[in-house]
Automatic annotation (TrEMBL):
Protein name, per record: WSC domain containing 1
Secretion signal span: none
A Gene Ontology molecular function term of the record: sulfotransferase activity
Residue ranges of the TM segments: none
Gene responsible for this protein: WSCD1
Listed Pfam families: Sulfotransfer_1, WSC
UniProt KW keywords: Repeat
Family of the protein in this entry: Belongs to the WSCD family.
Keyword set includes Repeat: yes
Length: 581
């Protein structure tokens, strides 16, 4: 037994195969457990048990849901099944424990399961009517299928809301998401993208052109390449609530030309916020602008940026007016609300058509907002960002550059948390994103304990794991910045707090550093969609201070070290809130 364990230990030391091994082990866990149980069943069955219905193998396969008892009564099928099981019992010793053995083992198990399943289907076919075709349904479709439609990639036809799930998208999931937001139609594209809206696409396509299988539902069709499978969404079941979130954006002075700035309008006595928001949602606009009996719909633009709000009292007088005749001519302030409609002017993204000549890194310490910065850059430039790593969660939510090789140069920049001379000098230039170490450490600890959107529990914070984490990661925060300042060839230093407070000016600076030009309206669209899909909902308040005085002394020392390193490079120092507590 020592020799196989020695081989396994040697294999695990090779870091380049560690990710492959963990993935294969995860996929194999359930299959190997099933195989072990099957061996016991075969050994007991070969000792002379002749009654098939009493055979342990029958109980086993029925128990896991592969075959039913009627199928196991077929002697030919059962004999073949035992032969298939025996084929996986004795791999040769020289093939065990290596990567090829893991791949072939997993493949054989999948093929065995397929043979079991197809024999089961073939055995059941005589019981069904001739010519009938069974389509698997894993979810309950709530809507009526309308047809296959062409989609203009330059401007989405169904543009009310957009969702991505490159692993679990189903027809029901898309329909329910659109129904909760009270949209009329749900369209699926590329097997993983969901679009909602209130207007049908114009061009009907051939049915066979919608041929992409849903990523999370085998046997169901979720559109195709530039083709939408469109469903008319039915009303939600009784008791289910629509998520018609209307967010107050503030009171603003009206632009000079209302009809040019806002494409749709409504004048109605006794107009309410709900009526105006519903009207603009049906017209598929993200902003509802209301003043007295007047309702306007549109987008944030250069003529209406939503940057200069005034006191709400300025809007109170006009809001209380109930008829057009009573509108004061000198009053030009309106209340603005965000409708549930997504601003899709900046959601289109693609890979670079030609390889980038400059290899740019988007570097940060973990927990410093790298994913958020990628979201902003992708929507501002219209190009995907890459990653030195592979995060399936990010890929499944629309960061398609995760699956592209980080050296392909098909992405606008590449995420990395690496430091060190060799890793840094691979890049021609870099955006160095720095965040307050107290906030970064807490964000990364939350991610490690509960994923991208979750929070660590009080038990996690009070465990020994938290002080160990701070002791090891605090020094990394400092060394990461210092290494990039030392070895980086061409740097743009961006502080997370500055980006959050002054989004458009800082984002414009980042885009210019990437040698890209974007319109002001596109930047305003990014600002309107600034949070993305990976913002934790609220700042979960803890009833205790997670940092001890010893931790603070350690972190404060590293803050001062980084501050000195920035000033030596004649760069702006850390924001004041970083300074020692």
């Amino acid at each position: 037994m020592a020799k196989p364990f020695f081989r396994l230990q040697k294999f695990l030391r090779r870091t380049q195969f560690l990710l492959f091994f963990l993935t294969a082990a995860y996929l194999m866990a359930g299959s190997l457990l099933l195989l072990q149980r099957s061996r016991l069943a075969i050994q007991q069955g070969t000792r002379g048990t002749s009654n098939i219905q009493a055979s342990p193998i029958s109980d086993m396969v029925v128990g896991v849901g592969i075959l039913d008892a009627r199928t196991m009564q077929n002697p030919r099928l059962r004999a073949k099944l035992l032969m298939d099981m025996d084929e996986l019992r004795h791999p040769t010793s020289d093939q065990r424990y290596g990567p090829r053995w893991l791949i072939s083992r997993n493949s054989e198990l999948r093929q065995l399961r397929r043979r079991w399943f197809h024999r089961f289907i073939n055995d059941q076919e005589p019981m069904q009517a001739m010519g009938s075709k069974v389509m698997p349904q894993t979810g309950e479709n709530k809507g009526t299928y309308v047809g296959c439609f062409s989609d203009d990639s330059r401007e989405k036809t169904l543009k009310g809301a957009v969702f991505y799930d490159l692993r679990k998208m189903t027809v029901s999931h898309c329909q329910e998401a659109c129904a909760e937001r009270a949209y009329t139609y749900a369209g699926l594209e590329y097997g993983a993208e969901c679009y909602c809206g209130n207007t049908l696409p114009v061009t009907i396509a051939k049915q066979e052109e919608c041929n992409n299988e849903c990523k999370g539902e085998k046997g169901s069709i979720c559109g195709g390449v530039n083709r939408l499978s469109v469903y008319r969404v039915e009303e939600l079941r009784a008791g289910a609530k629509r998520r018609r979130n209307v967010i107050y954006r503030g009171c603003f002075r009206a632009p000079e030309n209302l009809t040019v700035t806002f494409p749709a309008s409504l004048i109605q006595s006794n107009l309410t916020v709900e009526k105006c928001s519903e009207f603009c949602s049906k017209k598929e606009f993200p902003l509802a602008v209301i003043g007295g009996p007047e309702c306007y719909c549109g987008y944030p633009t250069m003529h209406f940026t939503l940057h200069d709000s005034v006191d709400r009292l300025f809007c109170s007088r006009q809001q209380n007016v109930s008829s057009v005749a009573e509108v004061p001519r000198d009053e030009n302030y309106y209340q603005v609300y965000q409708t549930p409609v997504q601003d899709t002017r900046c959601t289109d993204r693609k890979f670079l058509t030609t390889k980038s000549k400059v290899f740019v890194a988007l570097s940060s310490f973990p927990g410093a907002g790298n994913t958020w910065a990628r979201h902003l850059i992708e929507h501002a430039t219209g190009y995907y960002t890459g990653s030195y790593y592979f995060d399936g969660t990010l890929y499944n939510k629309g960061f398609k550059g995760e699956k592209d090789h980080w050296r392909s140069r098909r992405t606008i920049c590449v995420k990395t948390h690496e430091s060190g001379k060799r890793e840094i000098e691979m890049f021609d230039s870099a955006i160095l994103l720095i965040r307050n170490p107290y906030k970064s450490l807490m964000a990364e600890f939350n991610r490690k304990c509960a994923g991208h959107l979750g929070y660590a529990t009080d038990r996690n914070w009070k465990s020994k794991e938290w002080p160990d984490f701070v002791n090891s990661y605090a020094s990394w925060w400092a060394s990461h910045v210092i290494d990039w300042l030392k070895y980086g060839k061409h740097l743009l230093v961006v502080h997370y707090e500055d980006l959050k407070q002054n989004l458009i000016p800082k984002l414009k600076e980042m885009v210019e550093f990437l040698n890209m030009t974007v319109t002001e309206d596109r930047l305003l669209c990014v600002e309107n969609n600034r949070d993305g899909n990976f913002k934790r909902s609220g700042a979960r308040q803890k009833d205790f201070e997670p940092f001890t005085q010893e931790m603070k002394d350690l972190i404060n020392k590293y803050i001062l070290t980084v501050e000195e390193a920035l000033k030596r490079r004649n760069l702006t120092g850390l924001p004041r809130e970083y300074l020692p507590r």
